[in-house]
Amino acid sequence: KILLTIIFFAQSLFAQQNPIDGDSLTIVVPNAAGGLMARYARMVEPYLEKYLEMQVNIRIMTGGGNIRGTNYVWFAEPDGTTIGFTSIPSLVLAQFSNSPAVQFDIQEFNFLGRVSTEPRVLVVGVQSNIKDASSLVDLGREFIYPSQGTDEDFFTMIILAEAIGLELKPIMGYNGNPDTAMAIIRGDGDGQITSWRASLASMQNGDQIPILNIGRELYEDFPNVPSVLSYANNDATEAMTAVVDMLDTHRGFFGPPGLSDEIVSYLREKIFLALSDPELLELANQNALPLVPSHGAEEATKINQLVLSESLIMPILESTLNTLR
To answer: Is 42 exposed, middle or buried (0-12, 13-18, 19+ CB in 10 A)?
Structure first.
């Protein structure tokens, strides 16, 4: 009986009429062309075409730590032919920071579904002379942080530094994670926040050292790396906890304001079906790009709750950003 219900539900979704007036969908990815976000987008593209039954085009629009491309989606026609795909926490935190580049209101976007999520980690270069979390806390100098701009890792680092009493010196203008990683390996910076997987090769060959897991629990493959929450020791601890929870939303699709309820519902259902396709799930594992799909309605609820943490996070971000302007 349960199986028949599932089959009926799936068939009804396939039968749902496409309310989008157009024969193609553009997905704006405001991240580096060679980064994980772009790789995920290209991997899921043919499966979105399969379930949406329309051509899907990936458009890379890098700049401003995800802000340029996100602003583009914000001003897109609300007809369902243009959506975005990026790190959702970076958008939330960019708005919290009162960045002058931000032209959007996070609560007005339509969230269409999460593709994946994975823990973040603070890694340092071997030339930094920082060996572990304790030596970071006792650093006694500025921590030099190469950054591509106002993305979620940059904002997370600001909160982390405040939470553990670290003096932070951001160096802006790098072009994505590969660029900041090379800066750290060369010794031009001390460390960066990234996904565990993005830095795995550098950690395995000894170029980078993981020192703090940006999560509530220990990371299974590196159980000796402590959680950042175990070192947070001041008034920023609550803000750090909110950011850790926020990062769970991670890679997701979003649409411009003004989309009809019919289009939002259609995109959410079809995106969720595509991300649950057994063939895609197998391909994702083969490519080491694991999927952790979550329905758009569920993600919208999470994000609306996260916005409530603004009063904890905004003062810390504003204080640091004002010193950089």
So the answer is: middle
End-to-end CA distance of the chain: 62
Q: Residue 312 and residue 236: Cα distance in Å, rounded?
A: 8
Do 298 and 203 lie in one domain? The reply is no
pLDDT digits (tens, 9 = 90+) for 20-76: 999 999 999 999 898 889 999 999 999 999 999 999 999 999 887 789 999 999 999
Ramachandran area for residue 176 (φ above 0: left; ψ -120 to 50: alpha; else beta): left
Tally of structural domains, the chain: 2
Determine the Cα–Cα distance for residues 173 and 71; give it in Å rounded to an integer: 19
What's the CATH number where 268 sits?
A: 3.40.190.150
Alpha-carbon gap, residue 27 to 52, rounded angstroms: 13
**133, 145: one domain:** yes
- Containing domain of residue 254, as a range? 2-117+249-310
